[in-house]
Amino acid sequence: MTVLHNECQDLLRRLHDERLTACAGGMPALPDLSVIVVLSALDPAAFVTGALRFTLGLDRRQADTWMRTYTRAVFLAGNPENLRHRFPFRHVSPDGRMAWTAPGDPAAHTGLRRLLRAFHGTTPLDLPPRIDLDVPGAPPTGTAHCLYVPAGTADRYLVDVHHTIAEAVLRDILRPGDRLRVRHVPDMENLAGPPEYARVIAVPDADGRLRPATWLTREDPASTPSPPVRSPHHLAAGAPHQPAPAHARKGRAA
């Protein structure tokens, strides 16, 4: 089944509408909400693990608000170790290369956005074929998932993977102790069965057609070993894509 097939488009539309319904219903939310992620380098495995730890650390109010708001994630290039005494980060990765602010009013993040430029990359990333890791926070559960992510730029990778990880955690799909395999694939043209979760976006100038930006499925635990999380593949902040264009200096958001 290809993404252009009507049956697949119907599925993508249902997934897209589910997210819209979550934003429109339930308890009131802020009209705008953002999270700032500061990175000195992009290591895909460390980034996924950091996104998991950050989201799992949100309290109930923050989690509920996130799912009822079009939360924006803004990615800035900088060294968190040099900023921790000035800005109250909610989560900092163990290696100090990535840090997350708590979700909040974008006005609270003005200082960071003025100080730093966007973590910017417009050429395709050199990604490993797959990453195997465990969702932190609990012993193994025996449940495994596979997240398919198409090859793309650092800009798209950060936005799509971060939103998928965060929302899958907040919807109780990814749980502490689960095993997660991230597969980096050439494209998302052929899909196998309905996902547990997917990030669905519109195709520009395509008469309302949709496409999956990510695709999260249930996996056989026996096929997903869990080696150390560290990955040799990383992209330093802004390199080799410096300088960031002037229009991007307020950060990359989604």
Quick description:
This protein has 254 residues and is an alpha+beta fold.
What does this molecule look like?
This protein is an alpha+beta fold. It has one domain. It is 25% helix and 23% strand. The protein contains five helices and twelve strands. It has a five-stranded mixed beta sheet. The chain has a five-stranded mixed beta sheet with strand order 7-9-8-11-10, sandwiched between helices. Strands 2-12 form a two-stranded antiparallel ribbon. Strand 8, helix 5 (154-170) and strand 9 form a beta-alpha-beta unit. Helix 2 packs parallel to helix 5 (154-170). The longest helix is centred in the N-terminal third of the chain and has 19 residues, at 6-24. The radius of gyration is 18 Å and the shape is globular.
Number of domains: 1
Major sheet summary line? 5 strands, mixed
Approximate helicity band: 10-25%
Widest sheet: strand ordering: 4-5-1-3-6
Determine the mean pLDDT: 80
Q: Give the helix/strand class.
A: alpha+beta
- What would the principal axes of the Cα set say about the shape? globular
Cα(first) to Cα(last) distance is 28 Å
Name the beta content range: 15-25%
Oligomer: single chain
Low-confidence stretches: 227-233, 239-254
Element string (H = helix, E = strand)? HEEHHEEEHEEEHEEEE
Q: What is the β-strand count?
A: 12
Count helical runs.
5
Radius of gyration of CA atoms, rounded to a whole number: 18 Å
